[in-house]
Automatic annotation (TrEMBL):
Family note: Belongs to the glycosyl hydrolase 16 family.
Occurrences of domain GH16 (ranges): 9-264
Record's keyword annotation contains Lipid metabolism: no
Database matches in PANTHER family: GLYCOSIDE HYDROLASE FAMILY 16 PROTEIN (PTHR10963:SF55), GLYCOSYL HYDROLASE-RELATED (PTHR10963)
GO molecular function terms listed in the Swiss-Prot or TrEMBL record: hydrolase activity, hydrolyzing O-glycosyl compounds
Keywords of the record: Disulfide bond, Signal
CDD domains to which the protein is assigned, alphabetical: GH16_laminarinase_like (cd08023)
Record InterPro entries: Beta-glucanase-like, ConA-like_dom_sf, Glycosyl_Hydrlase_16, LamG-like, Ricin_B-like_lectins, Ricin_B_lectin
Name of the protein in question: GH16 domain-containing protein
Domain of life assignment: Bacteria
A single GO BP: carbohydrate metabolic process
Classification lineage: Bacteria, Bacillati, Actinomycetota, Actinomycetes, Streptosporangiales
Amino acid sequence: MESRSSGPTTWELTWSDEFSGAAGTLPRADKWNFYEGGVGNNELERYVKLGDPDGAAQKHASLDGDGHLVITAYKNTDPNLRCPNQESPTVCAATSARLDTFGKFSQQGGRFEARIKVPDGRGLWPAFWAKGTGTRVNEIDVMEQIGNRGSEAGRAHSALHGTDDLHLNGTYTLPSGKFADDYHLFAADWYPDHINYSVDGVSYHTIYRNAVEQSGRKWPLVEDFYLILNLAVGGDWPGPPDETTPFPSRMYIDYVRVFKATTPLVDAIGAITNHNDQCVDVAAAGTADGTAVQQYACNRTGAQTWTLATDGTVRALGKCLTVLGGAAGSGAELRTCASGADTQQWRVEAAAQSATVKMAQLYHLASAKCLQVPSTGSRLEVRECGPALAQGWSLPTAPTGRWKLDDGAGTTVKDASRNAAHATCASGVTWANDAARGTVAQFDGSRSCATATGPVVDTSKSFTVSAWVKLTATPTRNVTAVSQDGVQQSGFYLQYSRSMNAWGFTRMSADVANPANNTSTYGTSPPTTGWTHLAGVYNATDRTVRLYVDGAPAGTPVTVANAWSATGPLAIGHGKWNGARTDFFPGQISDVQAWPVALGPEEVRALRR
Ligand SMILES: [Ca+2]
């Protein structure tokens, strides 16, 4: 299942057409209809229907064999072809195609996106849009473009239409050039309380439900919507084509994809900050039920270390962020987590507070309101969701890799993070059932696992790696639990050092044979053959490494001479020395994590789950 991220939300693919098929073939009949109705807006095209003579459908809408759907508008040469929607019916200017998914696919909520290259010409009106299956009036225009009319060539339009004369329009302008010059990604991200339009990942237009309802009109996004692709010609908005309009004109669609929002695939851990750079904080680090949750100067203590858990809860100090009342202004507090309680369920939503400020919102399910900083006092509260800065939050980072090593069969180790950097193990890495940690990977001291491609962390920047490890016996040589391959050496080693007879976190001074020196931090006592949680943190700000054993810092940070970038795969169960994989781990490993930041002590403690 493909997923993609858009801001802090993870989207899971629910429907798509990649338009991969032989050149000249019709779009898939199980996905698309040729539209058979009339047109409005005084448009000047006649849409072909499936079964029209002379292969007209294929001529106007077919695959190009190169992964694209091509909708083609031709100049009409038939003087008897009348466009009936005209006030005084006139000869149609063009023939074209309009496709839709009515009766074949529709969805309520989620992300609707398409990668499209529009044609360039006066009077052309390509569009990617969606309509409500029930009303056929409610409408999301993800992209409309009206071609070669001065500055319109660099503009794309979006809109939300509904009853009560609801017409809310947005416009995106390219930094330079025309839309017809290349493909662009047009998307609408539809959440319960707002819809957000973007071009090429740049968000430019957000419409909130409460603002629409407060204006006395109905929110139109309350039904399933089906998709429409078309190339209109002429009409009230673009005006008629003229002698400069090229025919045939072609609209290319690389793909149409629809996603549903899911909760994050992995927990994110860290501070939640607002636009004032204040932190979400448990008052006086109290753990009694009902302790206020407030904004407070950031100090990165446990009272400010939040886990955005995959179950929708937001946790600190072992308890859950809770709002009990449903009314606007209800205060935030800490409470014992209760399974599935709506009062403790939060959803991360992408939002745009302004054209330049785009922070996440925390949407509270029970009250259907958003967490915000109060206008007076410090205790956080919920209010109607809107584009207020007071509702903007910077959320903790998620790991760039998480291999739980609970796969239990085969040689593929799944990465649960958004990166999906799955690892492949040499046969001989097996599976064991552990009383404490469930299914874990068993390493025999001569085989290991490595990600299929590339690095997972940039070792020249801040990062954190962690793992639960359990040795078979005290080794008689160095052994490594987690590393990332360089050419000659590993970029780091989360390891057992034989010479120190202790756990260590090590970086070599250079990626050369027999490097002159290394920098390490070590635990203070010999390892046992029970489970130990190891974390290595490289902090690029002060260029230091630090080891944590069972969540406790082992000594003080040590300065690294050269934080070179290891560009090979991340490895579980080996280190690299002078070009060869070595230091194979004998024992069990569980829940390896890689983070693109230097986690603080409270965050490292929170990794031990
Ligand atoms: Ca394609």
